[in-house]
Amino acid sequence: MLNQRGHAALAEGDHSRAAGCFTESITVARASQQTRAIRGAVHGLAGVALALGQPEQAARLLGAVEVARETLGTGQISQRHHGERITAATRAALTAADFAEALSAGRLLTLEEAVDEALALAAGVVTEAAD
User: Looking at the whole model, is its pTM more than 0.85?
Assistant: First the structure.
């Protein structure tokens, strides 16, 4: 539900609200060990990075989510259709080589490292909006 709200806010261009929803989703999902929801929220925060003109960071987060899905064997992310759109838009925002390089760099991150990076991005967006 929180990831869905985050995607709705992202679609409306409300990056601060989207970042807040995805951050809250990570917090709730961590408490109940819902890895799928965590991955979905990180994927959503990749969309926030993309919307803020940071496609390389978006691709890194996407790479981390991809490898976590593969290694944890937990299936698709939550809100998959939004994730597919974010992935396609990120790919379109970069050259093929730059996308592949950033995606590969993200695949070297653990899920926790990706979560930390995504939460740092979110904190910056929320702080900036408050100023």
Answer: yes
